[in-house]
C-alpha cells in the first residue's frame, strides 16, 4: 500500500470515527431522557401492580374474563417491539429471532391464526416476510412513545380477548435493566399472569449511562444493597374492603393495569434501543481508534522506508561518481 493510499484511508477512518462518536453522544442523550420517562412512571406502576395482583390473589371470587386461561388456543396476538432504524447492535436481530421462535412454537402446536402488532418498522417488515397478519402501522411509537396510543392498543386487545377473538396475547420486547444490560423478554399480556411475583419487572437501574466493567460492578453491589433493604421493609396491608362492588373495582383497575403494561414495555424497549446504539457506537469508535493506531504506525514505517531508500540512492550515486 502506497503512502497516499494509507493517508487516504486514515482520513476516511477519521471521518467515520467522528460520525460514530457523534452518534454515541446523541444516543447517550436520548437514553438519559428515556430513563427519566421510566423513572417518572415507576412509582405508579409498582403500586398499581401490587394492588391489582394482591387483590386478585387474596379474593377467591375476584375472577374476570381477563385472568382466565383458555383451554384451547386458536388465535394468538403478538405485540412485538423493535426500532425503526439500524446501527444498534443485535437489538433488532434478537427481537426478530424471538418473534420467529414464538411463531414456530404456535404453528407446531397447530395455531395458524397469528396477528402481530408491530411497534417499530423492523418488526413490521419481518412479520410481513413471514406472511403474518399485521394489525396496523405503529412505527411512530418506536420513536415517540405515547401513553394515549398505547391505551388505545391495550383497549383493543382487551376487547378482542373478552370477545374471544384472541385466546392469548404476548409481548416481545427488551426489558431495560441498566445501560449495559437489556434482557430479551417474552411476557404474557392476556390472560393476566398471577403466577409472577409482584415487582418482578421492576429491577431497573436508572442512575447511570456508563457501561464499563467497573460501573457494572458498582451497580451490581448497589442493587444487592437495595434488595436487602426491601427485604427488611414491611409489606403493604392487603386486607381489602371492596366499595362500591367488586365488578366496578375490577372494571376500573384491570384496564389501567393493561394500559400501563403496554406503555411500560414501550418505554423499556425505547431505552434499550438507545442503550444498545450507544454501546454499538462506542465499540465502533474504539475499533476506529485501534485501526488509526495501526494505520499511523504503518504510515510512519512506510515513510521511514521511503526516506531510507532515497538516502541509499543518493549515497549509491555519490559512490559511483
Brief description of this entry?
The chain has 321 residues and is an alpha/beta fold. 60% of the residues lie in helices and 12% in strands.
Helix content: 55-70%
Main β-sheet, in a few words? 5 strands, mixed
User: Which CATH architecture of the largest domain?
Assistant: 3-Layer(aba) Sandwich
Uncertain stretches of 5 or more adjacent residues: 229-235
Strand content: 5-15%
Instruction: Quote the CATH topology of the largest domain.
Output: Pyruvate Kinase, Chain: A, domain 1
How confident overall, as mean pLDDT? 84
Rg from C-alpha positions?
27 Å
For CATH, the homologous superfamily of the largest domain is named as ATP synthase, F1 complex, gamma subunit
- Find the structural class using helix and strand composition: alpha/beta
**Helix and strand succession?**
HEHEHEHEEHH
Number of helices: 6
Strand order of the largest sheet: 3-2-1-4-5
Q: What overall form do the CA principal axes indicate?
A: elongated
Number of spatially distinct domains: 2
Our measurement of the CA-to-CA distance between the termini, rounded to an integer number of angstroms, reads 33 Å
Amino acid at each position: 500500500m502506497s503512502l497516499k493510499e494509507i493517508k487516504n484511508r486514515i482520513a476516511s477512518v477519521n471521518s467515520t470515527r467522528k460520525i460514530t462518536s457523534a452518534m454515541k453522544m446523541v444516543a447517550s442523550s436520548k437514553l438519559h431522557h428515556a430513563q427519566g420517562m421510566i423513572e417518572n412512571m415507576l412509582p405508579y406502576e409498582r403500586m398499581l401492580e401490587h394492588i391489582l395482583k394482591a387483590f386478585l390473589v387474596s379474593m377467591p371470587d375476584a375472577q374476570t374474563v381477563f385472568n382466565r386461561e383458555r383451554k384451547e388456543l386458536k388465535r394468538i396476538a403478538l405485540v412485538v417491539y423493535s426500532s425503526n432504524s439500524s446501527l444498534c447492535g443485535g437489538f433488532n436481530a434478537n427481537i426478530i429471532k424471538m418473534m420467529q421462535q414464538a411463531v414456530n412454537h404456535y404453528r407446531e402446536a397447530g395455531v395458524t391464526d397469528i396477528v402481530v402488532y408491530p411497534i417499530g418498522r423492523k418488526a413490521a417488515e419481518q412479520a410481513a416476510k413471514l406472511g403474518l397478519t399485521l394489525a396496523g402501522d405503529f412505527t411512530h411509537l418506536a420513536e415517540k412513545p405515547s401513553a394515549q396510543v398505547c391505551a388505545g392498543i391495550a383497549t383493543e386487545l382487551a376487547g378482542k380477548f373478552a370477545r374471544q377473538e384472541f385466546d392469548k396475547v404476548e409481548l416481545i420486547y427488551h426489558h431495560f435493566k441498566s445501560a449495559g444490560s437489556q434482557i430479551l423478554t417474552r411476557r404474557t399480556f392476556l390472560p393476566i399472569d398471577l403466577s409472577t411475583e409482584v415487582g418482578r419487572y421492576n429491577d431497573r437501574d436508572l442512575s447511570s449511562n456508563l457501561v464499563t466493567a467497573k460501573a457494572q460492578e458498582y451497580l451490581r453491589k448497589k442493587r444487592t444493597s437495595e434488595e436487602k433493604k426491601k427485604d427488611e421493609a414491611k409489606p403493604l396491608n392487603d386486607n381489602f374492603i371492596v366499595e362500591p362492588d367488586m365488578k366496578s373495582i375490577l372494571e376500573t383497575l384491570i384496564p389501567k393495569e393493561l394500559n400501563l403494561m403496554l406503555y411500560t414495555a414501550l418505554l423499556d424497549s425505547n431505552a434499550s434501543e438507545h442503550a444498545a446504539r450507544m454501546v454499538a457506537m462506542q465499540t465502533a469508535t474504539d475499533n476506529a481508534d485501534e485501526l488509526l493506531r495501526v494505520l499511523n504506525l504503518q504510515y510512519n514505517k512506510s515513510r521511514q522506508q521511503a526516506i531510507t531508500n532515497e538516502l541509499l540512492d543518493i549515497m549509491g550515486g555519490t559512490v559511483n561518481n
